[in-house]
Amino acid sequence: MTMGDETPVTSLVLPVLIRPILSQLERRDVAASQTLRAALSKVEAAHPGFTYDLVVGIMRRGDLSINMNESVLRLQGSTSEADVVEYRLSRSEDAFQELNRKSAALKKILSRIPDEITDRKNIFRNNKYTIFFFREIASAIKKLLDAVNEVAGFIPGSAGKQALEQRKREFVKFSKRFSNTLKEYFKEGQANAVFVSALYLIHQTNMIMVTVKSKCEFL
């Protein structure tokens, strides 16, 4: 995999893995942390996927075998608002703050997937709980879409509204793909496919937030 590959994990390594580490460094050396943060953000913007390649390169040199999809998905659940600031809305109206909450809630529950499906036998023994968990995800998806609809009324101009509508359609497409991937998992047991599909859904959630920010916060 190289820089710019269309995979969701490449866009999430910087906010989910690298920035939390830099936040810890900031407690010891603010200047060094801020310098690294700015430099990595700049190079990632110019060469999407750079931080992913950097991390993978380090793991290869260390002869480490880690499932990046699973690891990044798990880490998503522990990110702070400061680490994912580009995916948070700053406007104070209830509709925008509700979208922040629903976006965070969906990503949080998706981050639990590795723990929930690691033991496939346990899933089948606790079928009622499994159904409840995936219904919880479906509910979080619906609540996010409802929140997006509320925010849409704040976006000025037809072009901005169309851009958000396109993002919604993409999100719905990947939501359906996620559902189908889960069905395949129960037949084939390919956990990594579920991790990737969940990461795509997180990425699409982030793209909705970026679109809203670009249309409502930089006027």
UniProtKB/TrEMBL annotation:
GO molecular function terms attached to this record: protein kinase binding
Residues of the signal peptide: none
GO biological process: apoptotic process; regulation of Golgi organization
Coiled coil: none
Chief location bin: membrane
Keyword rRNA processing: no
Domain Programmed cell death protein 10 dimerisation: 7-65
Cellular location(s): Cell membrane; Cytoplasm; Golgi apparatus membrane
GO cellular component: FAR/SIN/STRIPAK complex; Golgi membrane; plasma membrane
Keywords: Angiogenesis, Apoptosis, Cell membrane, Cytoplasm, Golgi apparatus, Membrane
Membrane topology: Peripheral membrane protein
Pfam families for the chain: PDC10_C, PDCD10_N
Family as reported in the entry's similarity comment: Belongs to the PDCD10 family.
Protein name: Programmed cell death protein 10 dimerisation domain-containing protein
Species this chain originates from: Diploptera punctata
